[in-house]
């Protein structure tokens, strides 16, 4: 099962397609190139899958998604593991 997980943007690059995002205490670089044309700043929330931000979401949607993911157990754990093992940038 492939899931997108919400993360909060904590650092934006001066240029380029990478941003540092916090997901459940794990901070990783994610590729934000798919969000081209959407304004993105620190504090914004994005939906991430295997190191790529797929869409910008609001904080309420992010919290609801995290609650759901934590409730389904192993699939959430697998997605967090995939995020931690991704090596972008």
Structural features, described:
This protein is an alpha+beta fold. The chain has a single domain (5-85), classed as SH3 type barrels. The chain is 29% helix and 34% strand. It has a five-stranded antiparallel β-sheet. The longest helix has 14 residues, at 59-72. The radius of gyration is 12 Å and the shape is globular. The mean pLDDT is 85.
Short structural summary:
The protein is α+β, with helices and mostly antiparallel strands and 89 residues long.
Task: Record the SSE blueprint.
Layout: E1 5-11, E2 18-23, E3 26-31, E4 45-49, E5 52-57, H1 59-72, H2 74-85
Antiparallel strand pairs: 1-2, 1-4, 2-3, 4-5
List keywords for this structure.
single chain, 89 residues, alpha+beta, SH3 type barrels, 2 helices, 5 strands, 29% helix, globular
Low-confidence stretches: none
Shape: globular
Number of strands: 5
CATH fold field value:
SH3 type barrels
CATH class: Mainly Beta
Tell me the fraction of residues in β-strands, as a range. 25-35%
Largest sheet, strands/sense/barrel? 5 strands, antiparallel
Radius of gyration (Å):
12 Å
Q: What pattern of helices and strands is seen along the backbone?
A: EEEEEHH
Which percent bin holds the helix content? 25-40%
| Count of helix runs | 2
Number of domains: 1
Mean pLDDT over the residues:
85
CATH architecture: Roll
């Amino acid at each position: 099962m492939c899931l997108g997980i919400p993360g909060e943007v904590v650092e934006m690059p001066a240029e380029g397609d990478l941003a540092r995002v916090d997901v459940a205490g794990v901070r990783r670089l994610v590729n934000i190139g798919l969000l081209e044309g959407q304004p993105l700043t620190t504090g914004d929330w994005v939906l991430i899958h295997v190191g790529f931000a797929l869409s910008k979401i609001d904080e309420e949607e992010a919290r609801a998604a995290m609650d759901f993911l934590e409730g389904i157990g192993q699939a959430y754990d697998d997605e967090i593991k995939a995020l931690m093992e991704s090596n972008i940038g």
